[in-house]
Request: fold
Amino acid sequence: MHRIRRFVVAIAAAACALTATVASAQFGRGGFFGFGAGRVATAQDFDGRFHYCRVVYRQALDGSGGSWRTDYPRGDINFSIRFSELTKANVSFNDRREPKHLLVNLGGAEMFSCPVVFMSAPGAASIDDKEAVNLRTYLLKGGFLWVDDFWGSYQWDHWVGQIRRVLPASEFPIFDIPEDHPIFRTQFEVRDIPQIPNIGFYMRSGGRTSENGADSSIPHIRAIADKQGRIIILMTHNTDIGDSWEREGDDPGYFVAFGPKGYALGINAFLYALTH
Reply:
């Protein structure tokens, strides 16, 4: 309990230091590519330290719920900073003390330099044959994919259809992560599955958390494991963990309600991925 209190105080004190200036500086760096603002990482961007790696993907014509840019770049920036402050991870910063978060393609070689990759709004994603082979190879060689912020049965079914192009159900079943799994206690004790709405919905709805009503009322933390039992894909469904990082400094009430829970789960998941 004392660790959690110290955690909340540490996050709250530090949140005031993050401003939109950092985010705009991150947007301004590098060139542009067909998926939107930013630049896909090259081999020269990796320096042997930890980089937050975000997956870039194409929008599926039948997808729903957002895009790869959801929570970008502030979620990536804020999580990198907190990860450096609250763990012993050697996070990469530039000479302006800005975290060097990176973008990677599902079909690119650059993904193999990231032990963990994060994908937002997978209910909108499209994975082609080349990307499926590349992602499968990455995962079975020791990589870890976290998909977050997709809501309701339609977005879930769409994502399952895409990931089954990568890992067939007969070999790699999806399961609900049991309460006693080490991912829930890698550093912080996570005792429930937080349902975190995006801040706009939360403010407009008067504090409700289920973005799709009855169809998304129950949050899930599901996974796919390899043949040795190591989680290789983490799926946080009916919740938006990334928004708790992106919006940590936007509203005190939203932060108190969701920030510590989102960071506790996030830090646990990243540490699990880096140590298993």
In short: The first strand starts at residue 32 and ends at 33. Residues 2-275 form a domain with the Rossmann fold fold (CATH 3.40.50.12140). The radius of gyration is 17 Å.
